[in-house]
## 1
Amino acid sequence: MSLRDSKGTPESVRALLDGLARLPGIGKRSAERIAFFLIKDEKESALELSQAIADIKHRVVCCDVCNNIADSAPCLICQDTQRDGSVVLVVEQPRDLIHLEATGMYRGVYHVLTGRIDPLAGIEATDLTVDALLERVDNPEKNACGIQVNEVILGLNPNLEGDSTSLYLASQLAARGIKVTRLARGLPSGSQIEYANTQVLADAIAGRQGMD
């Protein structure tokens, strides 16, 4: 019997266990350890965590230019006039953007697809922010700081679905006369950007290749 099902477990703790167990990678045992850590932890620390969780639900928004998570729209990257708005690096998820930005090697802007094309999972191009990307290319007013897009770097994860999505985007962008490149294959095939170290990501950005 788990603590969740025990009559000796207070209802407030049961609710916490249920909430923790819904998190990715957190099973029942991990949920129990985290719950009892929070119970024993200083009250102020637990309340700070609670407030941080509440803040992301009330304050975090989606940038209306690049679709990244932000405290305001447009996000700080899209507002930065020191960035090269003519170069757009396309990624699957906000966490990929965060890891690439941490390299300090890239000074363009981004576009977050919020996923990748995966027919087996029922995800088509229309389920992503592909139309928003193409609109940025077609209409400079929709791009960061109103700048014309000249190059799109495809920074999708180097696996079957990522490559298929890259080929689809490359065909759409090439038809518009846009230079299309992709991150260098310093990223091993089948890997995930979020798990690569900053040096590998920096090399991938610097050695980006044209899409044939």
Note: The chain has a mean pLDDT of 90.
## 2
Amino acid sequence: MSNNRRPVLLVTGGSRGIGAATARLCAAAGYSVCVNYREAADAARQVVGEIESAGGQGHAVRADVGVESEVERLFELCDERLGPVTALVNNAGILEQQMRVDEMDADRLRRVFAVNVVGAFLCAREAVRRMSTRRGGSGGAIVNVSSAASRLGSAGEYVDYASSKGALDTLTLGLSKEVASEGIRVNAVRPGFIRTEIHASGGEADRVERIAKSLPMQRGGEPDEVAQAILWLLSDAASYVTGSFIDIAGGR
């Protein structure tokens, strides 16, 4: 284990988009950052390189958060390279091609829920085991990256993704109460209409541009705008905030 005294942040899905922006911003704020990725090794290494070039400390670890053994190994490697996690951002998430519910099959649902729900639970479990004062830890903070979709439903596009984020909202509420007396705060951000690559996975890379003018703010959001909210929720500035949600969706 490293002897550094920096707080240690693990960001799942940290190679791109909101995860990468969060990794860079939190590293600049003094966190040692474990950047998790599943496939985008080059992108993850680039994020770590940017962190290190700016004088920070980072490490990239490949793991599929939907697989329990890989989550366990992810946290063990973070322990070894950076130290026990004191902050977790459950950001990893997937969506699939836009379609109606009556067109979806069980394999699609299993894929989406394995990453978006099971993965978040497993990572939260491992984080609590390290952070909880009940288990000898010194406390910490968890931020779940939900979505405006959990409130809006995403009809005709990806109700399965929206439902998975609804489960993440419930995890946030329940876990926050479960560990509040153990030095752990659990909150969530609910981004919407953010310019990231995830929209291409749904088959509409320019979805944000299509929707932007219908939003009260009449523009899409940027990953850095979400990262700023995540950093605040992780920080001591939010020390009396738990079980809360920040909607970052241009007023929708």
Note: The radius of gyration is 17 Å.
## 3
Amino acid sequence: MKKVILITGASRGIGAATARLAAARGYAVCVNYLKNRQAAEAVVAEIEGGGGRAIAVAADVADEAQVVRLFETVDRQFGTLTALVNNAGILETQMRVEDMDAARLNRILAANVTSCFICAREAVRRMSSRHGGSGGAIVNVSSAASRIGSAGEYVDYAASKGAVDTLTIGLAREVATEGIRVNAVRPGFIYTDIHASGGEPGRVDRVKAFVPMQRGGHPEEVAAAILWLLSDEASYATGSFIDLAGGR
């Protein structure tokens, strides 16, 4: 069966690394992005330069109508979806809970939680044997923050990733007899651009001393775990988590 993957937030960081590795493993890749068209098209060009197939599709995955259009584009361009990576996510400036307002919380939850639910819904409608599908796999990109809490910095982000963990467990059990596996990765301190969104681009170097391995991680290390969970080698894994946090 032809392998088709949709990766949300794939123009940079973990998403881009996953797109490149998926293409190398034979997937036709949809590189979803929000605003940075140039970066997304650069990922596509790299994949095509290596002989792979890829498209870049703009969509705000916190918006239900845009998610539906995104999946319909994949249907038209590549055919039946076999893999989804819910990678898109945001964080905002480091802040204590006592200073957060509802608008910030709603932005975080829409981007990090609602998006995963709606994308998973669309994937299940295509993959599930209940709907005539041939199965597939979903990997949610959570965070070690869901276990740690990110006190004094990103408790809202951590809470949103806790919701992603719960979605992973619940959905995995819901579709386990329908040919779909649902798992998650929980990265720790990874060298990506997301830290700049929180106001501290060099955050990984500041906190790496708290990691037992004494270093930050790299997007490619997370991508490798994601592709394993999507592969047949992980055929008995569902509702499972891989922590990629250097022992933290």
Note: Residues 59 and 70 are 6 Å apart (CA to CA).
